[in-house]
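Re: weekly structure request thread

Next one in the queue (262 aa):
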Amino acid sequence: MRDLGAGFSYLIKGQRWVGRHGRWFGFGLIPGLITLVVYAAALVGLGYGADDFVAWATPFADDWSSPWLGLLRVTLTALVFALGLFLAVITFTAVTLLVGQPFYESLSEQVDRSEGGDVPESGLPLWRELWVSARDSLRILVRVSLYAVLLFALGFVPVVGQTVVPAIGFCVTGYFLAEELTAVALQRRGLVLADRLVLLRGRRMLTLGFGVPLGLAFLVPFVAVFLMPGAVAGATLLARDLTAPPIDDEDAALSPYTLNKD
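Done, posted below.
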C-alpha cells in the first residue's frame, strides 16, 4: 500500500514542477489541445452513431418484443460508447505523446536537468524517435485492445460485470498510461518496450498509484490536456527513481551517517 501512495506522490510532484515552471507548462499544453479537438470530434461522432451501429450488429433482435429489444440495444449502445471512451482514455496519451514528441522530450530533459545529475539523450534523429514511439504505441494499443475486448465481454456477467470489471478496467488503464508516460524518459535511457514493461511490472503497485488516479482524472473533459505537462514531469521523476542505481553495502558503509555513527 505504501507504493500506491508513493506512485500518487510522483503525480503531485510533477504538477508542482510545472506549476513552478510556467513556461514549460504552457509549452506542454500545445500537443494536448491539438489531440483534444480530434478526439472530441470522434467521441461526438460515436455518440451519434453508436445506436445505429448496434442496430446493424444485432439484426437477430429485430423481431423481439418490447421491452427486450430496447433493453438489449440500449445496454449494447452504452457498452459501445463505454468501450470507445475506454480506448480514448488509453490512446489519448499515446497519440498526444506522438504528436508532442519534440515538446515532451524537451520538457522531460528539462526536468532531468533541474533535478541534477546526467541528462540522458537518445542520440536518435527526430524521425527515428517518432518511428520508435509510433511502433511502441501500436504494440501497446494491441495489448490494450485485447484487454478491452475481454473486459467488454465480462461486462455482461451479472454483478461482476458492474463492479469488479470496471475496477479492473481502471487498473489496466492506469498501468498502460504510466507506461506511455514513463516511456518519454525511459527511451532516452536506452530501455526498449520489453525492458520498460519488466521494470514497471517489478513495481506494479507504484505504477498503479501513479497511473490509476491519472486515468480517472482523464475521464473529466479537458482535464487530460491540463494534466499532461505535469504527468510527463511526474513520469520523468518516477523514471529517474526506477532506474537509479541501488546503494550497495560499500557505499552505505562510507555514507556520512555511518561515519558519524562510528
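The chain is about 80% helix and 0% strand. The longest helix spans residues 22-57.
Next request, please.
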